[in-house]
Each structure stands twice: as C-alpha cells, then as structure tokens.
Amino acid sequence: xxxxxxxxxxxxxxxxxxxxxxxxxxxxxxxxxxxxxxxxxxxxxxxxxxxxxxxxxxxxxxxxxxxxxxxxxxxxxxxxxxxxxxxxxxxxxxxxxxxxxxxxxxxxxxxxxxxxxxxxxxxxxxxxxxxxxxxxxxxxxxxxxxxxxxxxxxxxxxxxxxxxxxxxxxxxxxxxxxxxxxxxxxxxxxxxxxxxxxxxxxxxxxxxxxxxxxxxxxxxxxxxxxxxxxxxxxxxxxxxxxxxxxxxxxxxxxxxxxxxxxxxxxxxxxxxxxxxxxxxxxxxxxxxxxxxxxxxxxxxxxxxxxxxxxxxxxxxxxxxxxxxxxxxxxxxxxxxxxxxxxxxxxxxxxxxxxxxxxxxxxxxxxxxxxxxxxxxxxxxxxxxxxxxxxxxxxxxxxxxxxxxxxxxxxxxxxxxxxxxxxxxxxxxxxxxxxxxxxxxxxxxxxxxxxxxxxxxxxxxxxxxxx
Length: 466
Known about the structure:
The model has no long low-confidence stretch (mean pLDDT about 95). Strand 5 (about 100-105) and strand 6 (about 110) form a beta hairpin. This protein is an alpha+beta fold. The protein has 4 domains: about 5-90, Uridine Diphospho-n-acetylenolpyruvylglucosamine Reductase, domain 2; about 100-215, Uridine Diphospho-n-acetylenolpyruvylglucosamine Reductase, domain 3; about 220-330, Alpha-Beta Plaits (2-Layer Sandwich), CATH 3.30.70.2190; about 340-420, Alpha-Beta Plaits (2-Layer Sandwich), CATH 3.30.70.2740. The two termini are about 25 Å apart. The protein has helices spanning about 5-15, 25-30, 50-65, 115-125, 145-150, 155-160, 195-200, 230-245, 260-270, 290-305, 320-330, 330-340, 355-365, 395-410, 425-430, 435-445, and strands at about 20, 45, 65-70, 90, 100-105, 110, 130, 165-175, 180, 205-215, 215, 220-230, 250-255, 280-285, 310-315, 340, 345, 370-380, 385-390. Its EC number is 1.-.-.-. One of its GO terms (molecular function) is FAD binding.
C-alpha cells in the first residue's frame, strides 16, 4: 500500500497532530538515550485514548505492520528503538498521561501509561501517600514503560519490583482487542493472573495502556547513612545486622566500590565525608514510628565494634541526605566520562555476591589486562551493576560472555532490572535453559502469532512459518 494512504488512515484515528512523519522530528524516536541503537521509523503515532490505541493496532495488524511501543526513552537495552528498515510504526503513549483516580483509603492509583513517574509520585504525595517506585530517570520515565520493563530502582529491597505494585492492568493485545482488568483488589484468585504476562514483556505481547498501582503510607521519619566497609563480605554482615536492628524499615542498601566513588570525585567533584575505603554502603531507613534514629545508631555501634565497618556518618539534614545519595546517583555519569565501559546489570543470590565479585574480578583481570572494574548496585536485593572500563579495541562480546557465564554459574540472572530489549537477546538465548526458552516462545506465538509486537526485542524474530 502507498505510504500516503497509511498516514492518512492513521491520522483519521489519532488526528493530524497525532502522527509524526518529519525526519527531524522522528530522530528522538529513532535513537535510544545511550546512543547505542539507531533505527528508522516509518512514523510515530501518538494516540489520546485506549480506544485509539486499539484502532491503531488493528490497522497495523491488518496490514502486517510492526509496532514499537515507546515510553520515556529511558531504557538501557534498546527496547523502544525501531529497526533500520523504515517500515515499523513507533507508538508513543505520551498523550495518554492522566491520573484517573486516587483512592486514599484503599491506597491505590489508577493511571494512564503515558504518565511520567515523578508526576504520579507527586500526586500520591498530595494524597498523603507515596508511590514507592524510585529510580534516577523518574523525571522522564513513563508508567507504561516502567511496567513493560518491570523496572527496579533503589526501593526494591522494601517495596519490590514494579510488578509487585500492580493490582490491575488495561492492555491492548496484538490483534487490537482491549482487555481491561483495572481492579483494585489485594486478593483476586479467580483464574490466571494474566496481567503478569505483560509486565516485563517490553511490549512484545501487547501494549499496556493503564494500570492500578498499589500505593504505600508516607513515612514520618527517614535516616540516611554512609558506612565504610573493608570487603563485600563485611557489607553483607552489615546488611544482616541492619535486618536485625531496623528490620522492615530498611528501604535501601547500596554497595559502592571505592573505585566507583573515586570516579565520582574525579569527574563530578563530589567527595565522600569519610576516608578512603575499598567499599562503602549507603543505607536508608524510614518509618512512622519514633526511635528510628536510635535504632540506626545502635546498628552503627554494633558493626563498628565488630569490625564489619571502619567508619560511618549519619545525615543530619535533608541536604546531607541528598548529598549522600548524589554520590550513588553520580556513578554512572562519572563512569561515562572516564571512557568506554561495558555494562552488566546482573543479579546473584545475596549471599553469593562476594564470591561472584572475587571470581569476576580475577577472570576479567586475566582476560582483559588493563581493564578496570566499576562495581556498584543494590546489594540488598542481589543486583550488581558490574561495569568494566576497557580500551576502545577490547572485545565487548567476549567480555559479556565471560561475565554472564560467571553469573549463570552463581545461579544469577544476566538482567536484574534493565530488561533484555535488543541488547541482550542473543545472550538470553545462550544463558537460559532450553525448556524456559521454549515456554517463552509458546507464549509469544500464542499472544502475537504474526510477530508484529516489538519484533526482535526479548525474543528472536519469529515469522508466520514459525
């Protein structure tokens, strides 16, 4: 069919302003924010309602045109970037950004997929509650993209991954049918929990258009602290002590290497309030009960006395809290200024973190002389960002395989929170058990038999013959 006819049909659904065809305007849709992947979209379509999403999907499905769902373009795996064929339609939900309702008593929020996370957080705060999904890109990331990638962040330790906050979901399937399960129930055991198929599927099974999210009570007191620790083993002893002293009030437990904070000091001009150390942990706890600070001080006394920490500081104000968190949040940018780095968003069982780090460091040093490891992450939930700064000539594929093989050997995952996208498709196929891959393939073919929903992401391309 002619290009002009397709554009006219799309405009008939979403309006003149809802279809982007200008090459310059399409550039934002063609490149991921890390500039690792670049494609060429046929056009971008911005519907204003779930009904319009369904109409667009039906129109494209009827013509065999692939759709690439697009959120805030903050993903780290190229999951929202079209291929280079110039045939794919990017579907952005940016104009579907309403917060439909907040139930303060039930602690729920119904929100459209295009709503920016920070906007949803602020609305929850105004209602006296909180939306405990928190990550560095919250000023740009959209709810649909967060759920489609099952985003993690710094609060996973206490509040879980994004999927744990979802009570109900509204989706448009690959054939353009609207399936609405926007229920606000904490208990719903009536049949298959189908919404979980779409959470973390990165738009390969259908398009999330709205969700009911479970909110949480706001905390009256918050304590943030930084500790210097000699080894990752000692860090886990501090984690164990934190569980015993402050229990469920523990929001975050971030492990940062001394090397990572040296990069932050060199490139960002930010220095720790503590003396140099091989490792540091950033701890945050919150509660509405009095005595939280006393409990954290008791934790400090214990870990310092036992030698699991060598020094520590507790923030005395919100400004100091922000300064401590800025150290953690600046690591990635500082790393990018240092040179080429190969990033590994991996997870291993929490108790296995020290052994994994020892083995990986030794293996990387032997195979890639001159490389430097920059390790940091959410140690409280087993997620380590194991990044390696290498020369421009280093074999990135070989390094990825080396690290991922060690992750698998330790019973871990090659993607803890960033998703598969197009970046890790081949590695997922290599590292996952054949039985798991076969089951995933059956799900994909059942829900998207034509293979038109975000093809080439998460799963290899499928064809009608498959």
